[in-house]
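seq:
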Amino acid sequence: MDVNLLGNTDPERIMVDVLNATGAVITTGMGVALACGNEDVVASADGISAVLFTASAELRPAFIGVAKADIAANEHGLVIAWGLADSVLLSQETDKTIGVLAGASLLGVGGLAGSFTSIGAPETISTYMGKYVVNVDTVNISSSLPYAKALVRCI
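struct:
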């Protein structure tokens, strides 16, 4: 039986095109949310304008994934909404993310907007409308900008 596979050596991913509305670069691995409006973000009704994901409760429903590559200000780029992200930016807050073990939830937003910490308890997934980021490898955060591979589920 001949089976046609999309890419049997690469993990499947679903990506979303966004327009960076932050006024600055969204760096590879940063969390991204649609610009739905809150105390920090002007609402956009176009469905593609995006900003860095922050700890704001208003942005939780708008969390759409992790930037696949750098997205320049006012430019389009891809966000991984489902699947394996090769680079997810981890926060270096020593009281929250020290050594991140495989399987750790990365829902907590770090001190740097768009970064993730491992402080989020799995129960908090409900406040994110079932969306999550889960680390798939063990990482030490001693590097200047630590990154981890993670499974992203935002759809």
